C-alpha cells in the first residue's frame, strides 16, 4: 500500500475549522487540493503530518496563526479614513466589509477591508484577513499520492 513520503505531492480533501468549531472552508473530493511536500512554501504542519499517511487515511492538522496561510493580525493594516471619503454612498457601520482600492508597486488592487470603528470624523478599517490571528484546524484525508519522477 502506497504511503506518503517527504517529497510527494499529496492530493487531499479537508474541512478547515477554528477552535470554536466554526467551519471556514471545505475542500471536497470533486475538487481536491494538491500539497507539494517538496515545496518550501508548504506549511510545516502539513510536512509533519502527511508523511506516513495512506490513501483514505484522515488526520487532524493544527496550525498556529503564524504557521497558517493568513498569518498573525498586523496593526499596520488598520487604517483611518475620513468619514467624508464615503460621500454618503454607504452608511458605514462596524462589521461591514468593503472592497477597497489599494495601490502596490504602481498597480491598483481591490482588497476586502472590514470596518472596525466608526467615529464622527474617522472610520477605522482593517485590511487583515478575517482569519488572521486565529489558529486553524484541518481534518485532512489523503485521496491520492503522486510520486515525483
How large is the count of helical segments?
A: 1
Strand percentage: 35-45%
* CATH topology grouping of the largest domain: Chitinase A, domain 3
What is the structural class?
mainly beta
The general outline is elongated
Alpha carbon gyration radius: 20 Å
Our count of domains comes out at 2
The ordered string of helix (H) and strand (E) elements is EEEHEEEEEE
* Number of beta strands: 9
N-end to C-end Cα span: 19 Å
CATH architect. name of the largest domain: Roll
Which stretches of 5+ consecutive residues score pLDDT under 50? none
* Main sheet overview: 5 strands, antiparallel
Helix content bin: under 10%
Describe the structure.
By secondary structure, the chain is mainly beta. It has two domains: 9-70 and 133-146, Roll (Chitinase A, domain 3); 75-126, Thrombin, subunit H (Beta Barrel). It is 4% helix and 44% strand. It is built from one helix and nine strands, in the order E-E-E-H-E-E-E-E-E-E. Strands 1, 2, 3, 4 and 9 form a five-stranded antiparallel sheet that branches. It is elongated and about 65 Å long. 15% of the residues are buried.
Secondary-structure topology with pairs:
Blueprint: E1 9-17, E2 23-27, E3 33-36, H1 44-49, E4 58-63, E5 78-82, E6 97-104, E7 107-118, E8 122-126, E9 136-146
Antiparallel strand pairs: 1-2, 1-3, 1-9, 4-9, 5-8, 6-7, 7-8
Amino acid at each position: 500500500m502506497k504511503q506518503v513520503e517527504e517529497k510527494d505531492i499529496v492530493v487531499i480533501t479537508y474541512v478547515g475549522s477554528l477552535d470554536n468549531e466554526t467551519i471556514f472552508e471545505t475542500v471536497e473530493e470533486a475538487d481536491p487540493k494538491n500539497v507539494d511536500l517538496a515545496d518550501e512554501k508548504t506549511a510545516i504542519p502539513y510536512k509533519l503530518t502527511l508523511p506516513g499517511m495512506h490513501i483514505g487515511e484522515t488526520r487532524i492538522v493544527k496550525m498556529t496563526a503564524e504557521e497558517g496561510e493568513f498569518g498573525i493580525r498586523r496593526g499596520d493594516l488598520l487604517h483611518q479614513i475620513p468619514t467624508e471619503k464615503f460621500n454618503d454612498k454607504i452608511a458605514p457601520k462596524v462589521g461591514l466589509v468593503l472592497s477597497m482600492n489599494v495601490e502596490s508597486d504602481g498597480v491598483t488592487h481591490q482588497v476586502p477591508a472590514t470596518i472596525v470603528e466608526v467615529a464622527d470624523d474617522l472610520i477605522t478599517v482593517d485590511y487583515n484577513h478575517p482569519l488572521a490571528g486565529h489558529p486553524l484546524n484541518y481534518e485532512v484525508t489523503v485521496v491520492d499520492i503522486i510520486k515525483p519522477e
